[in-house]
Write a structure and sequence with these properties.
Blueprint (H helix, E strand, L loop, with lengths): L2 H23 L4 H5 L3 H7 L5 E2 L5 E2 L8 H13 L2 E2 L1 H8 L3 H13 L17 H10 L1 H5 L19 H10 L9 E2 L2 H7 L4 H12 L15
Antiparallel strand pairs: 1-2, 3-4
Amino acid sequence: MNKLLLTTFVALVAHVTPLTASAQEIKGDAQAGEKKIALCIGCHGIVGYQASFPEIHKVPKISGQGAKFVAASLVAYKKGERKHPTMRGIADALSEQDIADIAAHYETSGVTAGAAAPGKAADGSSKAMELVAKGGCVSCHGDSFSKPIDPTYPKIAGQHSDYLFVALKAYKTEGNPMIGRGNAIMAGVAKQFTNAELKELANYLGSLPGELKTVSQSKFK
């Protein structure tokens, strides 16, 4: 992470933490969460399901994702810091306990007990590695991109590349009431790159082995 971004990160920690603290302090119940995901599995429980907004892309894999990141994301949608009408509508209907329970469920969903965590990610093309270094990606997401330094940060290895590309572009978007993500750290990272560079970065990260999955909807029946 370059010096400017590191300074920004340090300055923002105290500001960002209170936004998600209440959801994180509530203990989630994974079994209770499994009963609260009816609105989630219609998209996230169908392998290969594609969203059409803001453009066509696969919905993210969230089974195996960290509970605190799932909770932080839902809180961000609820507060409007992540701008996506469908997700905000869903998040608005959830209580803090609901969010904690759903997050706990997805952290354990599809996880095989005793499975080895991914090791250091293999290098990609020289261009991809140049972009990873420029963005300081390892400093937050870990050298496997599956073990972030803070549990409110996402695992990104093996996530759908087209989704990662759309998400990264969203951090560059300003002044649009329907699209955008209000995270100053990631905005600072994403704005360093052209969209073509973001696509190459997303393709590299999506090609890596990771812990994220889409658990088929039928398994919840």
